[in-house]
Design goal:
By secondary structure, the protein is an alpha+beta fold. The chain has four helices and nine strands. It has a six-stranded antiparallel β-sheet. A three-stranded antiparallel β-sheet has the order 4-6-7. The two termini are 26 Å apart.
Amino acid sequence: MSELKYTEDHEWIRQEEDGSLTFGITDHAQDSLGDVVFVELPEAGQTLNAGEEVAVIESVKAAGEIKLPVSGTVIEVNDALSDKPELVNSDPLGEGWFFRLKPDDTSALDDLMDEEQYKAFIE
């Protein structure tokens, strides 16, 4: 498993061995949202552009959205979240992942924070 990258919107991105990217929200984000009750994900096969809103998260406290830092095509979504959105709370960096994307270009990842920078950002 490679190192995670983080956005200022509290999303994490992991580059997989096959070059795809897995997206989710950070522990800080799920903690701020409270109990997640619904997650709307993009569809597999959907082509998305950087900056586009691609997923919606609703909790007992608030609603938020995931904005994409890179363009690409969705290759897989975490269908388990439709029945168990609470996975985002219990395991945000594992079973609570949102979707996987085949990126058009990964150079935008270079502008994202590593774990140390993200920890400093949320303090």
